[in-house]
Amino acid sequence: MKKCRSGKKTLDRQWQATRSKPYLTWVSAMDEIASRQEKVRKFEEFVDRRLKPDLVKAVAQRDKVFQQQKVLYPSAVLLWNLEKNGVTSLRTMVNLGSEVFMQADVPDTRHIFVDIGMGFHVEFTWSEALEFISVRESRLAKYLCKL
After folding, report:
1. Burial class (CB in 10 A: 0-12, 13-18, 19+), 117
2. Is the pTM of this model over 0.70?
3. Cα–Cα dist 9/3, whole Å
4. For position 34, what pLDDT does the model report?
5. Domain boundaries, the chain
6. What residues contact residue 10 under an 8 Å CB cut-off, 6+ apart?
7. Residue 17 pLDDT
8. CATH code of the domain made up of 2-146
9. pLDDT averaged over 10-residue windows placed end to end, the chain, 147 residues
10. What GO terms in the biological process aspect are recorded for it (predicted)?
């Protein structure tokens, strides 16, 4: 009889050991899944609260710089062509606002006024204006690299 009891106890222990291991593994797996889901939720919350608004601001700043560069390049090409061809007078169309244009005659094109920012305009010669535009383009390019 002792043999049967010890054999039964051995079987009971083995059965309980095999029964409890999958349960513990399943519980720990569920805890791990819940932990990962919580980490994912926190990361998504961080992305939504912090990174997305920062991205929107950076894209807006980048677009503003691109707009400034878009204005500078045609101006530089125009000045270079004026200087190359030796143009002294000019007839052009000027935008008065709201897409209303007016014809303008410029009798002396040796000096031009350039918007340097914050509403200030400086009178430059063609070569000075080209130099100013190249400096401004390089600064804008550096600023873009920092973004």
Report:
1. exposed
2. no
3. 10
4. 87
5. 2-146
6. none
7. 56
8. 1.10.287.370
9. 51 56 66 89 94 93 91 88 87 92 91 90 92 93 86
10. positive regulation of transcription by RNA polymerase II; protein folding; response to cold
Specify the pLDDT at position 90: 87
| Of 73, 91, 87, residue with least CA distance to 126 | 87
Amino acid at 60: A
Tokens of 33: 């899944």
Q: According to the 3-state scheme, what is the secondary structure of the chain?
A: CHHHHHHHHHHHHHHHHHHHHHHHHHHHHHHHHHHHHHHHHHHHHHHHHHHHHHHHHHHHHHHHHHHHHHHHHHHHHHHHHHHHHCCCCEEEEEEEECCEEEEEEECCCCEEEEEEECCEEEEEEHHHHHHHHHHHHHHHHHHHHHC
